[in-house]
Every structure is written in C-alpha cells, then in structure tokens.
Amino acid sequence: MISVVILGAGNVGTHLFKAFNKAENIIVNQWFSRKTKPIDLYKNTVEVTDNLSSLKEADVYVLAVSDDVISNLSSKLTFENRLVVHTSGSVGIHDLDKKHRRGVFYPLQTFSKEADMDFSNVPICIEAMDKNDFNTLKLLAESIGSTSYKVSTEQRSSLHLAAVFANNFTNQLYRIAHEITESKSVEFDVLKPLILETAKKIQTMSPYMAQTGPAKRNDKKTIKKHLKLLEGSHHKDIYELLTASIQHTHGRKKL
Amino acid sequence: MISVVILGAGNVGTHLFKAFNKAENIIVNQWFSRKTKPIDLYKNTVEVTDNLSSLKEADVYVLAVSDDVISNLSSKLTFENRLVVHTSGSVGIHDLDKKHRRGVFYPLQTFSKEADMDFSNVPICIEAMDKNDFNTLKLLAESIGSTSYKVSTEQRSSLHLAAVFANNFTNQLYRIAHEITESKSVEFDVLKPLILETAKKIQTMSPYMAQTGPAKRNDKKTIKKHLKLLEGSHHKDIYELLTASIQHTHGRKKL
Description:
Two copies of one chain form a homodimer. Chain A is an alpha/beta fold and 255 residues long. The first copy, chain A, folds into two domains: 2-151, Rossmann fold (3-Layer(aba) Sandwich), CATH 3.40.50; 156-249, N-(1-d-carboxylethyl)-l-norvaline Dehydrogenase, domain 2 (Orthogonal Bundle). Helices cover 44% and strands 15% of the residues of chain A. Chain A has helices at residues 11-22, 67-76, 131-143, 153-183, 192-201, 207-210, 214-217, 220-229, 233-249, and strands spanning 2-7, 26-32, 48-49, 60-63, 83-86, 101-107, 124-128, 148-150. An eight-stranded mixed sheet of chain A has the order 3-2-1-4-5-6-7-8, sandwiched between helices. The first copy, chain A, is elongated. The termini of chain A are far apart. The mean pLDDT of chain A is 95. Chains A and B meet through helix 4, helix 5, helix 6, helix 7 and helix 8 of A and helix 4, helix 5, helix 6, helix 7 and helix 8 of B.
C-alpha cells in the first residue's frame, strides 16, 4: 500500500486524486488546497485541509500546483527527509527544497476539467534522486494503470517543448482549418475524421513516413492555388513556413 | 443497383474499388488503368482493361486519377451524356468535358496503401450539375457507409486547403516533436497518447475551446525557456509564428 498526500486542487490534482482514490493499493491520506471550497464535495471520501502545518505522514507528497509556486511550497513544508514530488513538465527536480527526498511525477497528457481521465492513456515521466523512491513512483504510476518512463530533467524539458508542438500548435492548426471552412460556410465536421485519422496514423508509422500532400510532392500549382485562396497574411505566413519545413524534411529545400 | 466503372488504380481508385465491390447494391462493371499490371490480382473479381474505347456502359464513371489528367481523360472518353465524376479536392466540376453529365465525388480522408479503409470514417463531398445525378452520388456514398455532404467547387477548394492544415501541416508538427525528442534520446512513444487525445478532444469541443498551454496563458517565462531550448532557427520560427497565432486567436496580440 502506498500512502499519498496531494497538494493542489487544479485539473491535475483533481484527476490524480480520482485515480489514486480508485486504485486498490493507494490510499490518499489527505488533500491540501489553499482554498478548500472547490473540493469540499470530496470531504466524505478524503480529509481535506487548507492548513500546511497539519499535514499527515505519507509515503509520497504530490505537489500538483503551478510551476511558479512549486519551489516555495516545497520549502514551506514543515517536515524533512520525506519523498516530495512535483508534476510539472518544465520545472527541475532541484527546484524542490533539498531538505526533502525529491522526485518528479509528470503526467504527459491534456486534461479537461469535465471528462474523467483514463490513466492508461497517460504516460507518466518519472525522475527521482534515490532508487527506492524511483521504484515507489513507478509503482504509483502502474497502480493507476499508467505506463511510466524514466526521464531526466533535461529530457522532460524537451518533452514539454515537443508537447507544445504536438498539442497546442496542432490544435491551433485545427483552429485555422475551422476558420477556413467557416469562411465558406462549410461544416468543420467534414474535417473531423481526417484529423482523427492523421493522429491515428502516426501511432504505428513515423510522421516522416506518414507525410503526404502538395508540399511533399512539391506540387507548385496547388501550393500557388492555396496561397491565393488564403485570406489574411497571417494564414499565408503559416502556410509558407510549414510548406518550407516539409520540403526541408523531405529533401526538397534548404532552409 | 448502381453500376460503376472506375478509372485509375492509385490509392483512391483501389480503396474505392474495394468498397464498391463489397457494397450490396453496387456493381463494378469494369476497372480501367493505363497500366493494368498492379491490379491484375483483381482480374477474377472484376473486368480489368487498359483500353479506353472498350469501356462498358455504367451509371457512374469514377475518374480516380491525378488532378493534371482529369480534364484530358474526360475528353478522351468516347461516349456522351453519361454521369462522369472526378474524386479531386481541388479540380473544378467544369474541368470535366461538357459532353458528359458531370459531378464530383471527393473522399476527404488520408489513404494509406496498406490498410483497408473503413468508409464510415470517410466523408464524401458531392457536387453534381443535375439533381438526379446528385441523388445517385449520394446513394453511392451511403452504400459504402460514408456520410455525404453537398459541397460546391468553391467550398471544396477551401476544404482541400483546410485539410492541408489539418493533415499535412499537423503531421509536420508531429515530425518536429519527433526531432525534438530524438535529439534528447527520448522515445517519441511518450507523446503518442497526447497526440491522439488532442485529435479526439476536438471531435466534441471547438479547437478554440480546446486550446491550452503557454501561448494561450501568455506565460512568457515558459515561452522564453522553450525558445532557448530550440535548436536551429527553423523550429524557432515555427514556434514564434504559431505562438503569435494562438495569442492572436485568443485576443492577446494584434498581428
């Protein structure tokens, strides 16, 4: 049995609480939040507190708080030499106060407030200063059905950066596709199966192999037609830059 | 029963043949290709020909050929006043020879040669000059399990353009994410669940509502950190442009 105290009641904290609470070999001893009101509804299931100095003993303290406050919160903890982890993609392990045994438990996924998260779809990137602590975190991840990866701080930073491309920037391309279809009164729904298939394709094929389209083919006629159709210099700039990027990747163009 | 002759044996032609052949109320009378060798294996199932002047009568002639040859091929057909459609996203309906009853049957999906295509995931954009012909094409689409959409030539062009953003450009962002992880010896696999979830999210939520991340939050510290991490001006340019694009969409920045 692994005992846990969660600190933070945002998206990540709440999803982790639900997953930990459901797991057979994890017990959540306490849930801390500066403001307990949003999590009062869980009071029958777990002890909720807003008092840092009354934290109970536990095997792992999970700091699911925003990047800016991780360091400070870890210093304020009144105990020492216990396993304290944060859940951030871009904060170093050494940002945690050195009085603790330190670790990172970074779930690499996009969390919505509404839908329950199936943690079998959430890879967890783990880092720890101590081998036993690493194994505890690995067991914690596996207990909620996640696949765990051993990832250093430097590697985690690059994953966090890559995730911005794969998630935020990709989503912005969906948004632009939405703007383009909307401007001609076409339902965005028509594009949804393509979007899903594009993401599915690279589950078994490298993005390099999966590439198709006018940029890869160097189909100048279609590219010219598209640039003419695009309204606003902003969409044009993105079209040109990503076309050049594809041509660079596929050996058509030097950048 | 709808009778069909398919012209062209590329990806789209082959997938359409398989789907038509499987459908209960469609009969493929003939399959034409300039080079019949790659489709010789279907000879027991369908009549294969490389002779344009021996084409059989059918309700619909489907030109699944590259954009450049559609117009010319349609002129070369020796009959008149029959329903001839092309399958292209970016070629106008009027590019077909006017001696025919003309139409478009554009499947908006990414086709791999290897995997069989489930046409219930393939929206078909339909256009026709004649109402009866439109209904025939609609029935043809429904008979292979597809959802059909009535889409004008202008709308189809914008869908084709939007698909470049949603498919080719998105895939290039996956590629860049792959390059970033690879450069730090991290498995690209860690990102795959995130990529799938990002695509799934917008099936029920607008891309606008689905957006998260440092650009949307205007988290300057993280953006600065990411730009420092990026190797090569090329990835930096894309990061900056798409960050600006997100901030423009979410009201943080004038472009």
